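User: For a reading group we're discussing how well predicted structures match intuition. Take Glycoside hydrolase family 88 protein. Before you show the prediction, I'll give you the sequence so everyone sees exactly what went in.
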Amino acid sequence: AQAALLEAENATISQGVVESNHPGYTGAGFVNYDNLAGSYVEWTIESAEARTVELTLRYANGTTVNRPMNVAGALVDFPGTGAWTTWRTARVTVPLNAGANLVRATALTAGGGPNVDSLTVGEPGQTDWSVA
Ligand code: GCU
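Assistant: Thanks. Here is the predicted 3D structure of Glycoside hydrolase family 88 protein, as structure tokens, for the group to look at:
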């Protein structure tokens, strides 16, 4: 199946702001999480049936300190990427219910989350998103 890309700047944001001062993002910008535990971005993912998906979060972390987050109940690491303009991906496999699923990425440490560009919903292990 085609993977669906959901921009962070279009999601629900709690304790974060949309910015565009670090190039390399897709869409209109990215979310700069406030620097505290508990800040989050929440996406709504619609699924026709219950299934397992792999979420790919595209992010930048210009510090040398990991900024782990709880993503849909799973602990995901977001280690430093070397610069705020260097964007990398972190992946996690999660179950979806049939219907609307709220997927929240919540910062777990005082640094807050990394800068988050987007969330892509794909098949587990999917690497080529150009084919069905
Ligand atoms: C810098 C950077 C921001 C980033 C912030 C942070 O201010 O410019 O984009 O979000 O650090 O540490 O979270």
